[in-house]
Design brief:
β1 (34-39), α2 (48-51) and β2 (56-61) form a beta-alpha-beta unit. This protein has a 7-stranded mixed beta sheet, with helices on both faces. The radius of gyration is 18 Å and the shape is globular. By secondary structure, it is of the alpha/beta class. It has helices at residues 12-30, 48-51, 65-75, 107-115, 134-145, 147-159, 185-194, 211-215, 221-230, and strands at 34-39, 56-61, 80-83, 92-98, 118-129, 197-204, 241-248.
Length: 250
């Protein structure tokens, strides 16, 4: 696995390091090469790139074909496969759910299906936003007022780049699949338990931050670091994002 990138307003680097740590720990525990299913892998740039490695047989699954094509082209290989469906003939030691549960119409049904692919001693590791945290509040306000799109247009105009500038490399992203679930820690635990899983580890990611604040307040690296650091000292309800590890109920 390669090192995580510099931190951003979403505490992405912190999340990557959390997931890397648990994959590494589980591999050391089993003392063998492990199988990892990255469910909702997207284009692979945010996470897959940082967990694919020689000691892992990686399978990324997503419904967005343009994102899958990008991931296959940039990251596919002998030990990294990208597909539109979960392989029916394989089980996994680790299942990754990074920013996925909030996009699912029926998270319990999806988790129930994933559990059938999880080895009995396997773990589920991932992240989810606090549905009532400052990030979701900021995104809601911005969606109503359209501030960030306007700011982005102004920046592009000033820099002399039009929105359709062919010189800008565009990585495909599934913007159509928005958030449909807004979790509290209590409701997340209820969903997890309904699928026969329990929370093994639960930590805060960031305090606040989304596209708008990331393009304004959090352009200074020290503020980004503070935003990530201070979350460790907050109660769960006050954090914007959460990182978790799940295991099967004994």
């Amino acid at each position: 696995m390669i090192s995580a990138p510099p931190e951003n307003v979403y505490a992405t680097s912190k999340k990557i390091k959390f997931i890397q740590k648990w994959i590494r720990m589980h591999s050391e525990k089993l003392e063998r090469k492990i199988r990892v299913l990255d469910f909702g892998c997207g284009n692979g740039e945010e996470l897959a790139r940082f967990i694919i490695g020689s000691q892992i047989d990686y399978v990324g699954v997503d419904i967005h074909e343009p994102s899958l094509n990008h991931a296959r082209s940039e990251l596919g290989g002998d030990n990294a496969v990208f597909a539109s469906q979960i392989p029916k003939d394989q089980t996994f030691d680790v299942i990754v759910l990074s920013e996925v549960l909030e996009h699912l119409d029926d998270p319990v049904a999806v988790l129930n299906e994933l559990v059938t692919s999880l080895n009995d001693d396997g773990i589920v590791v991932g992240s989810v936003p606090n549905g009532y945290g400052l990030t979701e509040i900021e995104k809601y306000i911005d969606a109503k007022l359209k501030i960030y799109p306007a700011l982005r247009w102004v920046k592009r105009t000033i820099s002399g780049r039009a929105a359709g500038d062919a010189s800008v490399v565009k990585i495909p992203y599934n913007y159509e699949s928005g958030h449909v679930q807004f979790y509290t820690k209590f409701s997340l635990r209820r969903v997890v338990r309904a699928a026969g899983l329990e929370i093994k580890d639960f930590q805060n990611g960031s305090f606040m931050g989304a596209d708008l604040s990331g393009a304004t307040i959090f352009t200074w690296k020290k503020l980004i670091a503070i935003n990530t650091w201070v979350a460790d000292f907050l109660p769960f309800w006050a954090a914007a994002t959460w990182h978790f590890v799940l295991c099967k109920k004994i």
